[in-house]
Amino acid sequence: METKIKPFKNLGLFFLLSILSVLFIAPIIIVLINSFKGQFYISDAPFSLPNALTFAGTENYLNGIERTNFFTAFFYSLFITVGSVLLLTLGASMTSWYLARTKSRFSSFLYYLFVFSMIVPFQMVMFTMSKIANTLRLDNPVGIILIYLGFGAGLSIFIFSGFVKSIPREIEEAAVVDGCNPITLFFSVIFPILRPTAITVAILNTMWIWNDYLLPYLVIGNDYKTIPIAIQYLQGGYGARDMGALMAMLVLAIIPIIVFYLFCQKYIIKGVVAGAVKG
Fold this sequence. Notes:
By secondary structure, this protein is an all-alpha fold. The protein has helices at residues 2-34, 39-42, 59-68, 70-101, 105-117, 122-135, 141-164, 169-177, 182-193, 195-211, 214-219, 227-232, 243-264, 266-275. The protein has 14 helices and no strands.
């Protein structure tokens, strides 16, 4: 009886996951299809494929790139994302190592303070944050990297700390006996061991920062438009919008992050499972 039920359960799970996959990928396919239609035909038949009448070729893409100054926005998004992710990955890993290896009331308080920052809604602090950012002259592409470090540190440290606790202390003690100072010990011994978790943290933060709209809008606004902000300006007043250019720019915006995710997705589960060995 058990051998007959198991294939049936696997088949049911397969169909369930297939349906969920279609539901998740459908919005991306719809955006891609409509990016090649004339803007006047998108609202009338959003689910139909382009034909000889509705096909617009690359007109939407060229129009969207020109109107949004896409390549400048792409540069700002790339600079902010790469800088923030590098700083977050390095800073959070070093902080997690210190907190995991230092047993004191201060380190425990600091750890729980980072964890607490994960549950504070952004809406509670966004106006105060934008005012402080303006006062401290952080309202530029370099300054917003420091702000992302503050907002992303909680989750990153939480993920790193679980994995650091699973590293045997004997490895560090052997390195110290061999003459390693703390900096050499971290970069030569600890950080290579943290590689799966570091990749996971980098992926999660890249997807968040690349797609983020509200924080760049509040901090750097129109002076340094990132891709989400630039795309938003395709919507004019009184509800007027160029749907063709909008769809085309959405496709260009999501292609880099999809490629990055597909290339690195195998590391996500590996890093999360590794960090869950001890907590």
